Fold each of these.
Amino acid sequence: ACCSMCLAMNPDQLQGNEISASTSNRNFKGRQGSPTGRTLLMSPAMAAVAAVEGKVTDVRNHLEN
């Protein structure tokens, strides 16, 4: 996805107390839509694993040794 939720520039916005996972470090209150929403800052690898798993998880469980 591109910059849509990161700027809350269209209907793709956090609502209420929703939580977003983001790789963007430019977060401030209300940036992604809701002033009461929260953003979890993640590395690109962690965001990818969260997307696959459907939840926040430890990316190290998916790395080869």
Note: The mean pLDDT is 83.
Amino acid sequence: MYFKIGLENGVEGRSLAWVLDHPGCFAYGQDGHDALHHLPAAIQNYIDWIALHDHQPWLRRPEAELEADEIWEVYTIDEDYELAEEGYQVDAWFRHDWRPLTELDIERGLKLLAWSRADLLKSVRGLSQETLDAGQPGERWSIANILKHVGGAEWWYLDRLALAFPREEVPSDPFERLEKVRTHLLKTLPGLAGSRQVVGIDGEFWSSRKLLRRAIWHERDHTFHIRKLI
């Protein structure tokens, strides 16, 4: 089975390999070669994850060595959109992100979002408020703030395409935020089938496909993160 791979270098000092046709399937590495080296195991874990929920997984393990089809070097810009050492980080825009989402993409995406959210909530089930709010050694955020970040980022992805509800309506409580933003995304996503809309905002491009790619990746990434903390 052939996999389209996007390689994003410079993600917080690491490289991130994306399996572009399968949102939520990714691997990190110290550099691009290392990320690609870790990708087969990530693909197998992704296949196993789907198989837990669906009797007919829609992908198979790769039979050949994986190579990057696209490579993006992360860079930073200032308020004048000039390259800068500090400022706004411009993350990957792959040629693949231009492709409109199909109805099948959305059908699968809705399943992946449901499974990913269930995993996230399961990872924090039973934790006391004290544990949720406690600082973590060497970490920027508490678990509660990681949850708020997941919901806030998902709202922000929607906002890039002018699809979000007003910012002042974003709940402060992490669980209420997760629920409200996700409900809005699930209502919005089916209407994006076939959309060719691409928006340039704050120095980077966004599309429906990029929105789905990043939303599923981001939640799964932080679910793995939380599991390591507890």
Note: The mean pLDDT is 97.
